[in-house]
TrEMBL record:
GO terms for cellular component: nucleus. This is Epithelial splicing regulatory protein 2. It comes from Helopsaltes ochotensis (Middendorff's grasshopper-warbler). The lineage of its organism: Eukaryota, Metazoa, Chordata, Craniata, Vertebrata. GO terms for molecular function: RNA binding. InterPro entries: ESRP, Nucleotide-bd_a/b_plait_sf, RBD_domain_sf, RNaseH-like_sf, RNaseH_sf, RRM_dom.
Length: 699
């Protein structure tokens, strides 16, 4: 048997039914016995909506009024009556089972399922399987109009059914006409058989996705504006009624590994994707969600993975995934299982844990955990921000796609795995940040954040003439903004003492500025993150051995950069290397060599960054005088790159930005092939580096 079903909402009608999130206000149905070609009683039921403000189109087409709807039953009661009346009619006809049949898919997929999901009550099983009369009609009559262009009226006209819509109540005519169409399809000339109903998935299935898969771009959408705490199940609930592919929800992460409010969703076919696009600006809680088309390539970039370890971890189906963040680096599987406790057992014990690590095996502090049911996952989420060791642990719902995305981010291989071997001398600039114990520097503390070099020079007054060339160093914080500190190199210790006495607590704009005498060594310590005050000198964090992870070597004291890339550096753009006075005295005065054995650039932890030093006679950031550089290059027979355009500086980078992100940021900028070939003697391998995109300049 079939139960022919028709409905209407308080908003749009026809092809836009359900696209405006308006509630159901009318249900009309009738049972059809396909074998006996009999029909049951036709039933019409009004539905009381929470919002009785009817659209103009609804009033015009249906003839319903808010007053009439106000006396109706709510949707849950109407659906109960529907089940009872259908069962009664089936008994009369001598039948026991039935399948719904509707005009298209909108009533079932876009109205009933989303509305009942929002109102938190379940639909009976009969609403998860139905026949689409338009598709069945086109199968029976292939010469008729395309499925998307079919309506009840066009199907009736194609069959020559003489029904007058004006003679019947709204909804009644539609159901009677649909029944007449079905009987025509069952006639001897057609003998149509209803065999393949449409199905609605009961729940979203999680699962892994491989980068080798082929994803049809016509099945993918991008959802934007999601609450940051939303999970894949929340997104599946937003698209309730539509069939999402297995593992088809991929939450997008930002550069810090946190969710950015976007997700890519893959549906089983393009028809489902098109219906999903109609939910543009529908609401998830109090937020409206934007829905746009996306590509299969974008989905694979987020959700695809190649790791066998991840594939094995995600091979256990229908598991709830929880992400743990902030784990101590020394945490073991036993520690995590003990933290979760017996009230939330992990699926498979240790096999249900996946620690996220860097390519060299170092832990990142993240882990993913599998739970067999929602109850265990909820118990685990109650431990959010509880303490493990000396750290509080954050717990969030996660997805298979997020597991892949996080692992892809941390386990990605370097873009430049090997480096050329030759050692290239780098010419230092004619000025350096002095080191040593001579107290010929002053520190300015408490500067207004808007203060510039010109303000400092005005503040110094007559002492400006005693500043060394390029001796003013503004100190920037980790965001690249002024920290309120500056260092000035004076020509002698006496000059520094006089300035400290004269300018201490002198006003600059609306703030008083503290001025202290210090040495070059103390200045370097502060620039590297140490503290200098009346209590003495505290070393920077990079000099504290306790900050080095126990399994790794301590930070190196010198910057190590690729040899070919070293030719692009001007050392004043890097932090000054901290040296002892003896080491400084022994260092070669004109040439610094950067060994090429290491494949990465190692920099000490810094709390502050010095800006490029400037001359007291010039305001702004200055490069080394071209004449001085040319002279130094001639003296050592070392060709170098010209100054203009050879170096760019980037500010405001995320703290965890790596080489890969910077390379991607500058993608598309190319050097002209002949720009530098005549300036530096390089191997073919090195020359190919310099002809690569401009991102090398930023290293």
């Amino acid at each position: 048997s079939l139960v022919v079903l028709f409905g209407a909402t308080a908003g749009a009608y026809g092809a836009k039914l359900g696209s405006d999130e308006r509630e159901l206000i009318l249900l009309v149905w009738q049972v059809v016995d396909l074998h006996g070609k009999k029909v049951g009683t036709l039933h019409k039921s009004l539905v009381k909506a929470d919002n009785l403000d009817l659209s103009d189109q609804c009033r015009e087409v249906s003839g319903l009024t808010p007053e009439g709807l106000g006396k109706a039953e709510p949707l849950d009661r109407v659906l109960q009556q529907f089940s009872q009346l259908v069962s009664s009619d089936l008994k009369v006809l001598g039948r026991s089972s039935y399948t719904l049949c509707s005009d298209g898919q909108l009533l079932i997929r876009q109205v009933l399922h989303p509305e009942t999901s929002k109102k938190n009550f379940l639909l009976s099983d009969c609403f998860y399987s139905f026949y689409d009369l338009r598709k069945e009609f086109h199968t029976c009559y292939p010469s008729s109009a395309a499925v998307k262009d079919q309506t009840i009226k066009t199907m009736a006209e194609y069959l020559g059914l003489g029904t007058d819509e004006a003679e019947e109540d709204f909804g009644v005519w539609q159901v009677k006409t649909m029944v007449a169409i079905i009987f025509s399809m069952l006639s001897e000339g057609c003998n149509h058989v209803f065999t393949e109903p449409e199905t609605v998935k009961y729940k979203y299935e999680t699962g892994p996705c491989s980068k080798s898969e082929t994803v049809d771009s016509e099945t993918v959408i991008r959802a934007r504006g999601l609450p940051w705490q939303s999970s894949d199940q929340d997104i599946a609930r937003f698209f309730k009624g539509l069939n999402i592919a297995k593992g088809g929800v991929a939450l997008c992460l930002n550069s810090q590994g946190r969710r950015n409010g976007e997700a890519l969703v893959r549906f089983v076919n393009s028809e489902q994707r098109d219906l999903a696009l109609e939910r543009h600006k529908h609401h998830m809680g109090s937020r409206y969600i934007e829905v746009y088309k996306a590509t299969g390539e974008e989905f694979l970039k987020i959700a695809g993975g190649t790791s066998n370890e991840v594939a094995q971890f995600l091979s256990k189906e229908n598991q709830v995934i929880i992400r743990m963040r902030g784990l101590p680096f020394t945490a073991t599987q036993e520690d995590v299982l003990g933290f979760l406790g017996p009230e939330c057992p992990v699926t498979g014990g240790k096999e249900g844990l996946l620690f996220v690590k860097y390519p060299d095996g170092r832990p990142t502090g993240d882990a993913f955990v599998l739970f067999s049911c929602e109850e265990y996952a909820q118990n685990a989420l109650k431990k959010h921000k509880e303490i493990l060791g000396k750290r509080y642990i954050e717990l969030f719902r996660s997805t298979a796609a997020e597991v892949q995305q996080v692992l892809n981010r941390y386990m990605s291989t370097p873009l430049i795995p090997t480096l050329p071997t030759p050692i290239i001398p780098v010419i230092p600039p004619p000025y350096t940040i002095a080191t040593g114990s001579i107290r010929d520097c002053v520190r300015l503390r408490g500067l207004p954040y808007t203060a510039g070099i010109d303000d400092i020079l005005e503040f110094m007054g007559d002492a400006t003439g005693d500043i060394k060339p390029h001796g003013v160093h503004m100190v920037l914080n980790q965001q690249g903004r002024p920290s309120g500190d500056a260092f000035i190199q004076m020509k002698s210790a006496d000059k520094a003492f006089m300035v400290a006495q004269k300018c201490h607590k002198k006003m600059m704009k609306d703030r008083y500025v503290e001025v202290f005498q210090c040495s070059g060594e103390e200045m370097n310590f502060v620039l590297m993150g140490g503290t200098l005050n009346r209590s003495g000198l505290s070393p920077p964090p990079c000099k504290l051995p306790c900050l080095s992870p126990p399994a790794y070597a301590a930070f190196q004291t010198a910057a190590v950069i690729p040899a070919e890339a070293a030719a692009l550096y001007q050392p004043q753009a890097l932090l000054p290397t901290t040296r002892t006075p003896q080491a400084s005295a022994a260092a070669p005065p004109t040439v610094t060599y950067y060994p090429a054995q290491a494949a990465q650039l190692y920099m000490n932890y810094t709390a502050y960054y010095p800006s490029p030093p400037v001359s007291p006679t010039t305001v702004g950031y200055l490069a080394a005088p071209p004449g001085a550089v040319a002279a130094a290059a001639t003296a050592t027979h070392t060709p170098i790159l010209p100054q203009p355009g050879a170096l760019v500086r980037m500010q405001g980078l995320p703290y965890n930005t790596g080489m890969k992100e910077i390379l991607s940021f500058f993608q598309g900028y190319q050097y002209a092939p002949d720009d530098y070939n005549g300036l530096i003697q390089l191997s073919d391998q090195a020359r190919s580096v310099l002809q690569a995109p401009k991102e090398w300049v930023c290293l």
